[in-house]
Structures are given as structure tokens and as C-alpha cells.
Design brief:
CATH architecture: Roll
CATH topology: 2,3-Dihydroxybiphenyl 1,2-Dioxygenase, domain 1
Number of domains: 1
Number of strands: 16
Number of helices: 5
Strand content: 25-35%
Distance between the termini: 41 Å
Order of helices and strands: EHEEEEHEEEEHEEEEHEEEH
Bound molecules: zinc ion
Structural class: alpha+beta
Shape: globular
InterPro entries: Extradiol_RC_dioxygenase, Glyas_Bleomycin-R_OHBP_Dase, Glyas_Fos-R_dOase_dom, VOC_core
CATH superfamily: 2,3-Dihydroxybiphenyl 1,2-Dioxygenase, domain 1
Largest sheet: 8 strands, mixed
Helix content: 10-25%
GO molecular function: dioxygenase activity
Strand order of the largest sheet: 2-3-4-1-13-16-15-14
Protein name: Ring-cleaving dioxygenase
Pfam families: Glyoxalase
Organism: Christiangramia crocea
Length: 312
């Protein structure tokens, strides 16, 4: 168990307009902005984190919003659908809400015995709400319009599109400890039994699917969760033993990370639970003001001036 992955930690995607992105995730979907910071490698760009009340690993979707970003395109070697867990019986509420708010969405369907409502965010990022087969005990963040009985609980599954599943499946099973569950058509489900939730990766195999273009409305990387830095470094050894390249440990202020590109082309990250988001602000304050890493604290004024205005 120690050296295994504990499901998903976060997923990071690229958006266009920051205000539109913020409004969609906090108002339409009712998630909490748990952290407003900047891209550590490009401090003139925001980095938004949306999740549950405290930003529990497995609930966190993060964005780099770039105004006037060019439109990306889904393809092979990418995460192409994010599946959120919602309470049983809530999909009708969400369908009505999406109709009222002009959110692009599709028919409620069934996949792997679970009802799901696929939809897109304003940048065209593909997501779905899923009434999970298992009982998801997580408590979703509540807002005035999205109450606990319908609130999004966190991730359930992520879908990776690939030309060939084999090499990616090998990483999931042999390095990460996932097990193959079942297939439906060209979609195969993998699951870890180390955690109850955010435990699923679905591999969609399409041999002639062209490579994706990673820009607006597409996912940048998928981060898997480990307990602590010791486990992180043990995972690093396992990835190296597979003959893959992997970064050194990187301090992301709210977690420690490693990045590597899995053989199918998807950028994977492994991230720790520690220290979490309530380090530079209290749980009550999470997301309410711009947080900067130490190296940018001296130039806060310039950074604030360069960032687009955001009405909360
Ligand atoms: Zn990340």
C-alpha cells in the first residue's frame, strides 16, 4: 500500500478568459475556488484551483487562464474527459441548470452501469457528471444555488485517449497499482483499491486518432496522489526502473511534485497530500486573495497590475 498511488490528486487544464472560467466553475458548477495564485513559471498568468471546501486531493481542477489563447484540440496522448461524482438522482437538476444557463451538454447516458451527463465548459473542455455505482461519502461544497443534495463531490474518473492502450496500461498497473476492471467497446476501466473515490482511469483506444493540440479547452496534465514525499521518491524510482524520464522533486508550495510523460503521450504528475492549501490562508479565507510563492512576493504590485481583473 505504501508505494501505491492514492487515486487522482488534481487535473490541470488551459482556459481562455479568467473571469469566464472563474464564473463557470464557482457559480454554474458551485465549486469552491480554494486557491488563487499565479503560474509559478509565468507569473503574469493566474493559476486557479477549484475543489471542495478545503481542496481535498481528488477534488481539485486547476486552470491556467490565458486571455486570447488559441483553441486547442483533443487527440491522442491527452486526458479528454473529466468525470465528476454527483449524488444519485441529481442529474435532472444539472440538466435543467445547464439548459437554463446555456451550458453545452448532451443526453444523459449510461457507461459502466453508471448514469452520466456529459457537458463542456465555456472553453470547450469536456467533462461529465456521474452518478457513481459506489456510495461516494464525500461532501460537496455548497452554494446558495447548488445545495449538498446535488453538489459535485470531486473526481470520479478521468479518460485518457490513446492510439494504443498497452504501454499506458502497464504504467497504471505495474507502477501505480491499478487493476483492469472491464471494457465497454474501446473504453477500458482501470481502478485502484487504495482509495474509495477518484480511483478510476478510463483508457479510450483509437488507433488512428491524431495527436491533440494542447491549448485552450484541453487538459494539460493529470496528477496522481501519494501520501508524502517519501512515497513520492519511491514512485520516482519505480518510474525510472521502467526506463522513463522523470523530473526531480519540485516544490509547488501546496504539494511536492514529479512530472513524467507516460509512453502514450499523456503528461503525468505525482503529487503529495502535504502540505495542502490551508498553509498561507485559513480554511475560511481559501481563494479570497492572491497568494504568491516567496520568490514573487517582492514584486506583488507589478504582478497584480499585469493580471486581468477578477470580480469574485
Ligand atoms: Zn499539476
Amino acid at each position: 500500500m505504501e508505494n501505491k498511488i492514492l487515486g487522482l490528486h488534481h487535473i490541470t487544464a488551459i482556459a481562455g478568459d479568467a473571469q469566464r472560467n472563474y464564473d463557470f466553475y464557482t457559480k454554474t458548477l458551485g465549486l469552491r475556488m480554494v486557491k488563487k495564485t499565479v503560474n509559478f513559471d509565468d507569473p503574469q498568468t493566474y493559476h486557479f484551483y477549484f475543489g471542495d471546501e478545503v481542496g481535498t486531493p481528488g477534488s481539485i481542477l486547476t486552470f491556467f487562464p490565458w486571455t486570447n489563447v488559441r483553441q486547442g484540440k483533443d487527440g491522442s496522448g491527452m486526458a479528454t474527459e473529466i468525470g465528476y461524482s454527483v449524488p444519485k438522482g441529481s442529474l435532472e437538476f444539472w440538466k435543467d441548470r445547464f439548459e437554463e444557463k446555456n451550458v453545452r451538454h448532451y443526453q444523459i447516458t449510461e457507461q459502466f452501469g453508471e448514469r452520466k451527463l456529459p457537458f463542456q465548459d465555456p472553453d470547450g473542455l469536456k467533462l461529465s457528471l456521474i452518478e457513481t455505482e459506489h456510495k461516494d461519502e464525500r461532501k460537496g461544497f455548497e452554494t446558495a444555488e447548488v445545495k449538498a443534495n446535488v453538489a459535485i463531490k470531486g473526481f470520479h474518473a478521468v479518460t485518457l485517449s490513446l492510439n494504443n492502450n498497452a504501454a499506458t496500461a502497464e504504467i497504471l498497473t505495474e507502477v501505480f497499482g491499478y487493476k483492469k476492471v472491464k471494457s465497454e467497446g474501446n473504453l477500458t476501466r482501470y481502478k485502484t483499491d487504495t482509495v474509495e473515490n477518484a480511483a478510476i482511469v478510463d483508457l479510450l483506444e483509437i488507433p488512428d486518432l491524431p495527436r491533440g493540440l494542447n491549448a485552450g479547452g484541453t487538459n494539460h496534465h493529470v496528477a496522481f496522489r501519494v501520501k508524502d514525499e517519501e512515497t513520492l521518491m519511491a514512485m520516482r524510482e519505480k518510474v525510472l526502473k521502467k526506463g522513463l524520464q522523470i523530473t526531480e522533486k519540485i516544490n509547488r508550495d501546496y504539494f511536492f511534485s514529479l512530472y513524467f510523460r507516460e509512453p502514450g503521450g499523456v503528461l503525468f504528475e505525482i503529487a503529495t497530500d502535504n502540505p495542502g492549501f490551508a498553509t498561507d490562508e485559513t480554511v475560511e479565507e481559501l481563494g479570497s486573495s492572491l497568494q504568491l510563492p516567496d520568490r514573487y512576493k517582492g514584486v506583488r504590485e507589478q504582478i497584480e497590475k499585469a493580471l486581468p481583473e477578477l470580480k469574485q
